[in-house]
Amino acid sequence: MGTFQIEGGHQLQGKIQPQGAKNEALQILCAVLLTSEEVIINNIPDIIDVNKLISLLENLGVKIQKLGKGSYSFKSNELNLDYLQSEQFKKDGSGLRGSIMIVGPLLARFGKGYIPKPGGDKIGRRRLDTHFEGFINLGASFRYNKEERFYGVEAPNGLKGKYMLLEEASVTGTANIVMAAVMAEGTTTIYNAACEPYLQQLCKMLNSMGAKISGVGSNLLVIEGVTELGGCEHTILPDMIEIGSWIGLAAMTKSEITITNVNWEMLGLIPTTFKKLGITIERRGDDIFIPAHNNGYEVQSFIDGSIMNISDAPWPGFTPDLLSIILVVATQARGSVLIHQKMFESRLFFVDKLIDMGAKIILCDPHRATVIGHDFHSTLKATTMTSPDIRAGISLLIAALSAKGTSTIHNIEQIDRGYEDIEARLKSIGAKIERVD
Ligand SMILES: CC(=O)N[C@H]1[C@@H](OP(=O)(O)OP(=O)(O)OC[C@H]2O[C@@H](n3ccc(=O)[nH]c3=O)[C@H](O)[C@@H]2O)O[C@H](CO)[C@@H](O)[C@@H]1O
Ligand SMILES: C=C(OP(=O)(O)O)C(=O)O
Fold first, then answer.
1. Domains, the chain, ordered by start
2. What is the ipTM, given to two decimal places?
3. CB of 278 closer than 6 A to ligand 1?
C-alpha cells in the first residue's frame, strides 16, 4: 500500500498541463480490437488503470509499440482468443472497470465476448444490465456464471441492428453497445445513450475507421452497420476530471494556477459549477487561469435566495466524478451548500475524514451532505487517512495540501489509478509532497 506524506498550508503557483482523459482512453483502447489494421493513439495517460488495460490487450495478442510519450501503435491482426478462457484473463479483466468494454468489440468481430466481474471504484452498486441488455437486443445470447462471476455473450451468426431505449444512460454501457453495433447488419438506434465527451470521441474515432454513426453528442445515436473497419490515428482529449481537480486545488490552497490547453468547448458545466462556489475562473485562449483567492470565495445562492445545491446528472449534467472535489472545496467557502450525489450511494462516506480534519459537514444520508464553509477562519488540521476511491483520494490530497501540518495518505494506488505522476507535477507548482513507500 503506497503512502503520500504532505506538508500542507503552502500557496502553490505555476502552470499545469492536464493528462489525457482516463475514461476516454479506456474506451478508445478497447476500440483497437475492432480492426486488424494499425491504430495509433496519442495522449494516452500513464496511469495504473490504462496500463492494466494495455497489458490485457497485449495478453490477448494485440501487437503494441510505444512510439513516444503517450503515443502507441496497436495491431489486432492475430489475437489469441484462448486467453479469454484462461485464469490470467480472470485476473486481468477484474482489475479495472474499463475492461468491460472489450466485450462489445470482441462480440462484433469474433461473435463472442467474455469478461469476469470488472473492478473499479467501490462506490456503490455498479450494474452491468445496460451492457448485456444491449447485446441481447442485437441478437447475442447471454450467460452468467454466478460462482465464478464470469459473463459471456455469443452471436455465432452475427449481430442484427435494432432500435433500443436504454434503461439508463450508462457511459461504459453505451460505449460497449456502440462498438458492438458498428459492424452489425442493418441499423441500430440507441435512445437515452450517454453522450459524455468520452463517447463523442469514441464515435469520432469509429467514424474515422469507417463506421457510420450519426447523432454524435446527443442521446440518440443511429448506427448503420458496415462490414469492416480500418485503421486510424486518434488523439485523446485532456482529462476534464483532472481539470476540475486542479481548479479545486487552486481555490483551496489560495494559489494562482494556470491549467493549460483544457479544450474548453468540451468542459460542459464544469467551469460554471465551480463558479457557483464563488471561484473565479478566467478563460485565456484555451487555458484556464485561476487567480489566488486571497479573500476566499463565496457560495452563490439561487435567485429565490434558497441554499445552493450541487448535484450530479448524466452528461451534459454535472459529472459525478467531480462532486467529491466540489465537496472538499466547499469546506473553506463562505456560505453553505448541499451536495447531492444522485448516482452512487457510497461515494460520500469519505466525509468522515474531512470531519476529523475539522470540516463542518452533516452527512444527511448516503447521497447528501450539507457543508458549512469555514471561509478560512479555521484551517483544516493535518491527519492520517486512507484513500477509499480515486476521487475521494484526490479530494483528501487537496484537503491535506490546504491543511496546517503534515498529513499522511495511505492506499494512494487509488489516486495513481487516474492521475499521472502526480507528485512530480504537484511539486513543479510548489507542493510539498513525498511518496514514502
Ligand atoms: C471507466 C468509466 O468510464 N467510468 C465512469 C463511468 O462508469 P460506468 O459506465 O460504470 O457508470 P454508469 O454510467 O454505467 O453508471 C454509473 C451509476 O449511475 C447510475 N446511473 C447512471 C445513468 C443514469 O441515467 N442514472 C443512474 O442512476 C447507474 O445505476 C450507476 O450506479 O461513468 C460513471 C458515471 O458518469 C463515472 O463515475 C465513471 O468514472
Ligand atoms: C469512478 C471512476 O472510475 P472507475 O469507473 O474506473 O471506477 C472515476 O474515474 O471517478
1. 3-19+238-435 (3.65.10.10), 22-235 (3.65.10.10)
2. 0.98
3. no
